[in-house]
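Forum > Structural Biology > Help requests

Title: Can anyone predict the 3D structure of Vacuolar protein-sorting-associated protein 36?

Hi all, first post here. I have the sequence for Vacuolar protein-sorting-associated protein 36 but no way to get a structure on my laptop. I'd be grateful if someone could post the structure tokens.
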Amino acid sequence: MVDLLRGGRDELLSTLTSAFRREAWITITATDVMAKLTAATVSEFNHAAGIAGILRRQEAARATATQMASEAFADLDSLIGKAKEVVAVISRYQAAQAGATAEEKQADSGDLSAALLNIGFISPVTKETAGTQYHQQLARQLADFLGAGNRGLLQRVGGMMTLPDIYAIFNRARGTQLISPEDLLTVSRMLSALGLGMRLRTFPSGVAVIQSDAYDDAAVGEQLVALAKENALMATSVAAVLHVSLVLAQEHLATAEQAGLLCRDETLEGLRFYPNLFPQYCT
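Reply #1:
Sure, ran it for you. Structure tokens for Vacuolar protein-sorting-associated protein 36 below:
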């Protein structure tokens, strides 16, 4: 018994409060705890396992896919709207160009082509729109894309470009209207016959390129000889100087060697090319 007259009130209040919080009158045994845990585990297992669980997972996957598709189409609609605005701007630009001189048209056309290439925009020729003339129209579009003039893409990379490189940048510009490697090879073979200022060329090694008609092997060979007189040439140095890929640099060196302009020196340090001085001693 607690004698409240002699103190102890605070201790009693604290004990009662603690008992109420713990619900000390409810007795929970270890068996009760294990039964609750087992029931929860079985319920969770039944929810995830069996046919019902498979159906729930499939339904969740479908819901996620539907949401992603809705968001993607919303973005696509926005992109199409922006593309229509760009087409309208280009149409107005072409109308303004109608009264320009030939030189102004050529210069501005090069600038416009470069800008469109940078943003990856091109109005693609498709089989649906071109029909039986698909490959012919695609060849003309490819020639326009590469540019046969001095300001064209092909001239800016030395007058030739490998088919894999062209395939990559041309499809990037076409967006979702991709062409197959077979289509690219077919139209590349048509370039010369259509008189588009470029042609398909295959090196003895099997490397296939599209080459500008203005490209001259002799001029490139003379340039390589001049470089070789300063320092021995390697494919990496030629690629850096001529701003071409390593594959094309190797082909340029092999072509100059076959023409008798360069001679090779294979050592443990690598393959180097020097000016061919043997002809002047053989005459």
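Residues 216-283 form a domain with the Arc Repressor Mutant, subunit A fold (CATH 1.10.10.10). Residues 50-97 form the longest helix (48 residues).
Shout if anything looks off.
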